[in-house]
Amino acid sequence: MDFKKLLAYQKGFDLAMYIFKVSKSFPKEETYSLTDQVRRSSRSVCANISESYRKRRYPKHFVSKLTDADSENSETSTWLDFALECNYISIEEHRNLSNRGLEVGKLINYMINNPGKFGVKEE
What is the pTM of this model? Predict the structure, then answer.
């Protein structure tokens, strides 16, 4: 299977693209700080999922890259909290983005806890 068919990857990618669109409205002075950070962390979720899938021959590497994806997902959540507090996004938008991030996190954690279902050979 291609990593792009993984539900965690697909939902993470959709979330990253949605964050990209939403963050286009952030103030210009945030370009190299909040805007850049939230875009990079949200994209990194998918990058780490794809890397983990290619490392599935090595169980510890698979889990390690997925924990990196989970960490980036949490970082994205933090940047969204800042965006809310700075009034760059509405409470409803924050709730929507946060719920989508929670779903991605649950999918990543499912992969971490069930590596055998993703082609990882048990040690």
Answer: 0.94
